[in-house]
Amino acid sequence: MQEKILVIGACGQIGTELTLALRQKYGNENVIASDIKEESPLFAGTGPFIKLDAMDAAAIRALVKREKITTIYLLAALLSVTGETNPALCWGLNMGALRQILDLGMAEKLKIFWPSSIAVFGATTPRENTPQKTIMEPTTMYGVTKYSGELLCQYYHKKFGLDVRSVRYPGLISWKSEPCGGTTDYAVEIFYEAIKMGKYTCFLSENTYLPMMYMDDAIRATLELMDVPLEKIKSRMSYNLSAISFSPKEIAEEIKKYIPNFKMSYAPDQRQAIADSWPASIDDSTARADWGWKHEYDLPKMVKVMLENLTEKLSK
């Protein structure tokens, strides 16, 4: 049967690039992008786009039936920093949208992808090589919704047999799409400021290690997970996903290899407390064993590609 895909929240940091990758794989007309925001210029004109509220269950149901959707990627969410400014909205959107899609998935026999995050972990979680199964006591509303969402996904699979799949994304770094209010955004902002201004003031302290991933790896991991035969998916919470871990000081030193006069300074703000509650590195051996996950980008390779592409982008 021909795959027909709906991406909800397609104009965010992940959604823009995932939409393009899905269209390349399944054909432009078979991937419907949707968002409450205006269509992203990154994929405008490449396929169908519908303005859609992730909380409008009736509109989504009608679209799924009309277009004979087989798979939904639910990406709409309020992230960590934004979620702390409005916890009620964060809970309402992140959990409400997920529950509606799980119900719809059950009714229409859909396959669902829903992303979790390293925000599910907290200060009581082992910080180094955080295991797949461990203590989870998130300290942000975003993290609370992601942990609750994982449990909900697992429940719907065990109770109703719904095929819902998930990964815990680390901090994601891309030159194509802009950051969207996350605690790891410094690792994208630093490249813009290094190229434009030759300096950057980081909102985290210099030795704050966090798990990170180049966006190409994250998109590939998502597509690979969704292609895996059902019997290979052993975890129905969410898979740990990892590539690299580094500190602001380390990425600054790597950038200096290309921009020797780059100046880095530090002014930690409220985001430092969030970062301190998250893992410094992630053990994703379960994903590697279950469905063959393997990252391609280390820190030097990522920095080189980011600087090359952003320099060209910003010169236009």
Automatic annotation (TrEMBL):
Domain NAD-dependent epimerase/dehydratase: 5-232
A GO biological process held by the record: L-threonine catabolic process
Similarity comment: family membership: Belongs to the NAD(P)-dependent epimerase/dehydratase family.
InterPro entries: Epimerase_deHydtase, NAD(P)-bd_dom_sf, NAD(P)_epim/dehydratase
Protein name per its UniProtKB record: NAD-dependent epimerase
Gene3D superfamilies: NAD(P)-binding Rossmann-like Domain (3.40.50.720)
UniProt-recorded Gene Ontology molecular function terms: L-threonine 3-dehydrogenase activity
